[in-house]
Amino acid sequence: YKLNTAGNDYEFQQTIVGDAIDEGFGRFIHVSSDGSKFLSASNPAYNGERGQVKVYELSSGTWTKVAEFLGDANDELTSAAMTPDGSQIAMGSVNAKIAQVFETVPTPAPTPSPVSTTPVPTLNVIEPGTFDWDIEYLPNATQIIFSENATGSELELHYNISIRSHRITAYQDDCTTEIPDSVTSVISSSTNVTDTHADLEVLLDIQQETVTNSPIWTSLGIGQGQIAVCIRVDLVLGELDTGTSVTFHEQKLYVDIDLTQGFQVTDITLDRTAATNETGTAQFDYEVSACHCDPSSFDCYEPNDPNSVL
């Protein structure tokens, strides 16, 4: 029981039960003057006439057993007492005719680990958005100028891409077989429009002297034909020529040509190829650093720094 704040009554707090009926738990009770500890001596004949003394401590409103003493054979521990602060306990034995005194031993403070002399590397904080790998084809910006006077930019395409290394490839309409340089060549340039994205301009130069005898040309009759190409844009991790493609976009274009009208375009058909799954294996060599850090700021601390969250 605990004295209430008014000081005129006791309030029930907790019931503590012994281990066995013949233990006689609570036969003798002694409480420290500060009310933080108490001991209980059992029936002297309990446990083969050894007797038993238990010590309890109050922590966070709950009494918990912190020590237990058993007498030797036929000792018959009969009485016990503690100092006002509960730091020392004395127990008496009838048969052994002795008194034993015990004292609490403070738990030694843990030995601090040696502080590493290796400097903790500074972590680079990545700004949000820089891990985007976006490729958006802009069909309304596509321009085709296929005439006798057009040189170097018969097909002009535009994309909205993340600011990354990019690789442009011209394929036949199977999007697998590259078109020979003698038939087409690709020129690209990009202009940043935001902090994270850029406008990618792709110019496809079609050699009008050789295109009609190439795999990308299909005759549609006398003086009529069609050019079929597939433009692939890859965003690349690592070196431009040898790096790994993280994401890509393929765009098919079919351009109908009327040779009798001075190589003028008569129709354009855009076709997006169906997505396919490709499985590959890539190996990267990265340096990884770790440290104790504050997750809200990514600040690094030495292992035993008091500001460390670990």
Keywords:
310 residues; five-stranded antiparallel beta sheet; 21 strands
- What Rg, in angstroms, do the CA atoms define? 43 Å
Q: What level of helicity do the residues show?
A: under 10%
Low-confidence stretches: 122-130
The global form is rod-shaped
Please, what is the average pLDDT? Answer: 75
Number of helices: 1
Structural class: mainly beta
Give me the secondary-structure topology.
Elements: E1 2-3, E2 10-11, E3 28-31, E4 37-41, H1 46-49, E5 52-59, E6 62-70, E7 77-82, E8 88-93, E9 98-103, E10 135-137, E11 143-144, E12 155-162, E13 165-171, E14 184-192, E15 197-206, E16 217-221, E17 224-237, E18 244-258, E19 264-271, E20 292-294, E21 299-301
Antiparallel strand pairs: 1-2, 3-4, 4-5, 5-6, 7-8, 8-9, 10-12, 11-12, 12-15, 13-17, 14-15, 16-17, 17-18, 18-19, 20-21
